[in-house]
Amino acid sequence: MSAKPYCVLQRHVVAETPRLRVLEVHLGQGERVPGPFHSVADDIFYCLEGDLCIEAESPPEIFRLSPGQTAEIVSGRPHMVSNDGEGLCRFLLVQRGEGFDFIPV
């Protein structure tokens, strides 16, 4: 997997096929993944631990997830992901689509 233009505490590929990828991501306090979008992949977020914040555009919408909660961002919709709490934030990111590009906004 190629390097990304951001840094997070930990990112691990759980599974990957040509049309599906599952990542476990750990965000430390204050860490964020700056506003990307994906041209042909949807993102489904599953919060496992901590407080996850997803700020989406087009239309503007904020998702605040606690453990057990999910949110989906469709392809082409810019979004930023951040740790909205004081401790560790851990989530699964399931990406489904024709490819897994990362287009910074």
How would you portray this structure in words?
- A five-stranded antiparallel beta sheet has the order 1-2-10-5-8, with no helix packed on it. Strands 3-9-6-7 form a four-stranded antiparallel beta sheet, with no helix packed on it.
- The relative contact order is 0.33.
- 0% of the residues lie in helices and 55% in strands.
- The mean pLDDT is 89.
- A hairpin with a 3-residue loop joins strand 1 (10-16) and strand 2.
- The chain has strands at residues 10-16, 20-27, 32-33, 36-37, 41-49, 52-56, 61-65, 70-73, 79-83, 89-97, 103-104.
- It is built from no helices and eleven strands.
- With 105 residues, it is mostly beta strands.
Layout: helices, strands, pairs:
Elements: E1 10-16, E2 20-27, E3 32-33, E4 36-37, E5 41-49, E6 52-56, E7 61-65, E8 70-73, E9 79-83, E10 89-97, E11 103-104
Antiparallel strand pairs: 1-2, 2-10, 3-9, 4-11, 5-8, 5-10, 6-7, 6-9
What are the defining features of this structure?
mainly beta, 55% strand, globular, 105 residues
Quick overview of this protein structure:
A 5-stranded antiparallel β-sheet has the order 1-2-10-5-8, with no helix packed on it. Strands 3-9-6-7 form a 4-stranded antiparallel β-sheet, with no helix packed on it.
Order of helices and strands: EEEEEEEEEEE
Terminal CA distance:
20 Å
Unreliable spans are: none
Outline type: globular
Helix content: under 10%
Rg over C-alpha atoms, rounded to the nearest angstrom: 13 Å
Structural class: mainly beta
